[in-house]
Amino acid sequence: MGFKCGIVGLPNVGKSTLFNALTRTAAAQAANFPFCTIEPNVGEVSVPDERLDTLASIAQSKEIIPTRLTFVDIAGLVKGASKGEGLGNQFLANIRETDAIAHVLRCFEDDDITHVDGRINPLEDAETIETELMLADLESIEKRISGLVRKIKSGEKEAVLQNKLLHDAKAALEEGRPARTVEVKAEDQKQWEMLQLLTSKPVLFVCNVAEADAAEGNEWSKKVAEMAEAQGAGHVVISAAIEEEISQLDPDEREMFLEEMGLTEAGLDRLIRAGYDLLGLITYFTCGPKETRAWTIEEGWGAPKAAGVIHGDFEKGFIRAETIAYADFAELGGEQKAKEAGKMRSEGKAYIVKDGDVMHFLFNN
């Protein structure tokens, strides 16, 4: 199943540099002028997970297949984007197609790289982008509400619910709050997601700092962290310049470079994991001599639905799941020893899959 995280921000904040590093390519042109990214670049990245190597070593797997996230590099937004300024309409449409937003904020000084507003203030930058997305949502909501009038009069239940959700979102936006602050009942969640409101998407603030601040961050990144906490959003500190340099190195050189910079791991690994967490995703594993593989599901999924990401027949004909917790599998040294120790469980349709479960599904054809 695919999960897309859109990389957004004002021009010249480091989005394309970050994307280049994420995808280990130079597919996104990084240049010092607005709108250097005309079409959204799309790249898939592996989600780093040390558990895969451990499982594969125990099972002596021939192949390791990590789970993946898709990142979309979306061209720089500017003030007035909601009214079509810059390449606004196109950019907003690209954002609408993503599941979450990684909002890159410039937290570094560099006289050689111009800022579209001629100043460095990530909090104001964040407000500019959020305002444009909110204005675009309001315009979309007004059109949808007017389009529902006839359906509501004819008594269509779905239209009545959509109308209520749209008015809830409109009220929040008019109070200066993004749509993601609206409390939505569990039974209405599917309809809410179908509205595809830009500000309903979860947000991860990415503080792009100078190389010297990569390990500890700086005053600007600390202020962004406070803002993120207040909004219930995620945040991560990263130096896009360092990450792009690291992405060109082989594994040994990479480790030495990180050590020299005082970093314990690449910032991209933190960013990818943060994006994964932001989307409320977890990982379960299948493990054997042929391959050890990570599978992405949403937190809270039951065993049959989790089985369905491997193949639809697994969900339709689900009988049970033989399950071992990762910690038990790793500590005891594999499936057979875990089974002998009574650590393999037989779980039915009601079982909620946990992060790290090592699973084998039994199903009827």
Write structural notes for this entry.
The protein has 365 residues and is of the alpha/beta class. 41% of the residues lie in helices and 19% in strands. The protein contains 14 helices and 12 strands. The strands form 3 sheets. A 6-stranded mixed β-sheet has the order 2-4-1-5-6-7, with helices on both faces. It is flat. The model is unreliable at 25-38 (pLDDT under 50).
Going across the biggest sheet, name each strand in turn: 2-4-1-5-6-7
Calculate Rg over CA atoms. Answer: 23 Å
Please tell me what the overall shape is: flat
Helix content: 40-55%
Please tell me the overall pLDDT.
85
Beta-strand fraction estimate: 15-25%
Biggest sheet statistics? 6 strands, mixed
Tally the beta strands. 12
Which secondary-structure class do the elements indicate? alpha/beta
- The SSE string, one letter per element, is EHEHEEHEHHHEHEHHHEEHHEHHEE
So how many helices? 14
Ranges with pLDDT <50 over ≥5 residues?
25-38
Q: Cα distance, first to last residue?
A: 22 Å
Topology:
Blueprint: E1 4-8, H1 15-23, E2 41-46, H2 50-59, E3 63-65, E4 68-73, H3 88-96, E5 100-106, H4 122-153, H5 157-174, H6 189-194, E6 203-208, H7 219-231, E7 234-238, H8 240-247, H9 251-260, H10 267-278, E8 281-287, E9 291-298, H11 303-307, H12 312-316, E10 318-324, H13 326-332, H14 335-340, E11 345-347, E12 358-363
Parallel strand pairs: 1-4, 1-5, 3-9, 5-6, 6-7
Antiparallel strand pairs: 2-4, 8-9, 10-11, 10-12
Helix pairs in contact: 1-8, 4-5
